[in-house]
Amino acid sequence: MKLIVQKFGGSSVANAERIWNVARIVTDTYKNGANVVVVVSAQGDTTDDLIAKAHEIDPNPSKREMDMLLSTGEQISISLLAMAISKLGYPVISLTGRQAGFLTDSNHSKARIKKIDTERLEKELDQRKIVVVAGFQGINRYDDITTLGRGGSDTSAVALAAELKADLCQIYTDVDGVYTADPRLVKNAKKLEEISFDEMLELASCGAQVLHNRSVEMAKKYNVNLEVISSLEDKPGTKIKEVTKMEKLLIKGVAKDDDIVRISVIGLPDKPGIAFKIFSLLAAKKINVDIILQSVGRTGTKDISFTVPVDSKDAALEVLEEAKDTLGEYTVETDTDVTKVSIVGAGMQSNPGVAAKMFEALYEADINIAMISTSEIKISVLIKKDLGIKAMNALSDAFIK
Amino acid sequence: MKLIVQKFGGSSVANAERIWNVARIVTDTYKNGANVVVVVSAQGDTTDDLIAKAHEIDPNPSKREMDMLLSTGEQISISLLAMAISKLGYPVISLTGRQAGFLTDSNHSKARIKKIDTERLEKELDQRKIVVVAGFQGINRYDDITTLGRGGSDTSAVALAAELKADLCQIYTDVDGVYTADPRLVKNAKKLEEISFDEMLELASCGAQVLHNRSVEMAKKYNVNLEVISSLEDKPGTKIKEVTKMEKLLIKGVAKDDDIVRISVIGLPDKPGIAFKIFSLLAAKKINVDIILQSVGRTGTKDISFTVPVDSKDAALEVLEEAKDTLGEYTVETDTDVTKVSIVGAGMQSNPGVAAKMFEALYEADINIAMISTSEIKISVLIKKDLGIKAMNALSDAFIK
Asked: Per the count of CB atoms within 10 A, which of A91, A145, A189, B151 is most buried?
């Protein structure tokens, strides 16, 4: 019998009406002869409400107690959804993360799944029950409740699909699939029928917010058939898999990431190993460096520019201040008026001239490029923040026909 | 080291301010050198809100899913209270009913505690942590969450105190102890310093609502030192124990129960065993019969009157209608315009004349008695509903000096 894992986010179960909608999707799948495991997030604003309650007590509460608190959100969702499915006349049971067998490490608030013990879950499936599982949560080896952090419910769903060797893992959202660009920003954005894991990963790390990287990485690792699909409209979504069929689209996506700041280190002594020292100090503080540009400065010195996420800015500046003791004097400048615009597509590997075409499109739109970074299936450029949407449209017009 | 179990109800943890108040009471006890286990209920209206959410989906939801839903209420309370205690600088950990070791039967929504496995809880106490436990909940042998039903958190606290052999179990409420009568109804109601388990049980079953019978029964069975005390004012509460010291009070309480209806069966054939048949039929339907009065009716017949709780009225009338097939013809009348007023006190066992004094007080207040029922430590009378409060005051004036 086919086994399908379906994941529904917080907005899909936000109220009774939406829960009925989910119950109908789930029972339709079941009726068609599949076994169904449903993974759900907390309802709409529940998590925010719980966080507000905690912050009223302590703005910086114990993470262990925070996980105890937040995990109630999904527990509410699973019981309500199970009630709706049962009312429609189908056999159903809800399971907390623990009951579904999610064992994690002890990193409260961003735990990693170590193992899923699916014995009970499979016993319920064997009785042809629809099993509704609380996403985002598990327990550690001390029997304490943990949560998986951002994108946690997607990760729960993909991990369960991998462990149960499900035929398909459907991520239901309020958009109807993966687009070549955010349709709210780019006029001619198109929905993709298929996209590869690698392309999806690059798109996610370039600012597209459909799926969290962690779940895509896991799906790639265990080769889980993923589909992003709308919970509100009945139409095909986007399939995400290892290898996609040939498509005429040279690139699969145009993305923009505003969460970026450029830091320039000017007047560094021109000695070997100086870049290595700076970036290893940043790495030691777990600061994620993205685009790097090194250039020759005034006589006997060099300049290094790089980008980091906005919330790493202060930590990076601190590292650079402390490093002066060993590296000598230099100036540090920051620029937050920047955005990173990227194009992603496996097709560019075998098509020379993609970069040239990108730069041409930006030139014709009168957009100046400050930094460039490339990978095998991605080209990113750093430009002025207020030109971001214009650049996305120019690139979409050039590449997406 | 002394071990104290403290239980706080929903109104005591209804908001951040109240939670701080509870945290201060708990940490004061801990600071004075005791180990402290705290049992809490769901915050204020949380349970009602969750029930409303469920009823939006299904007015009659699965009890297993209802327990999954409602148990989140206490889980929210324990994490918030643990955050507050921690913020005050004390070591603390919250435990769900399951983590605290509550194993129950599978009677969802009104489960009975079968066993408490306190291994983890005692490990946390050994580390001098304050342990905050979710009341009202446990798991059954299938690892499903159960709830204990009405008065559940009191029962959790008393059961834990019994299992841990605690020195004291304090039930914190928004009243400051057990009164001889409801102070909102009776002018000269007095707070009791002490009351015996048996007296408390009779008072509870006569309509006093301070403690649920189940927890008092359990405290009596395991001889747990109980205290009812105010969470809002710092003053001594009422101690409930096996034997109380001699007090000048002949009776400990005056209570009123409006949840009562009188059913009269008139014109029954005057044959042996007829009363037995009627009451065994009622018992088979689990209808709780309270006061019974039998009298001789017209020639060759007799009349039987009895009282049942209001929500058993329809079931009782059905039983009486069906019984006509075997018992012959009779008339059935019901009267809902009645209330039961009781006086309770172990002292009446050794003091003849208490009943006479009660009837005299009611006579002088011009109150007519319809039915009378007595136990070793209780006398109840059935009177017109609108005279209930007048009767309570008359009895309080006569007995409570």
From this structure: A145
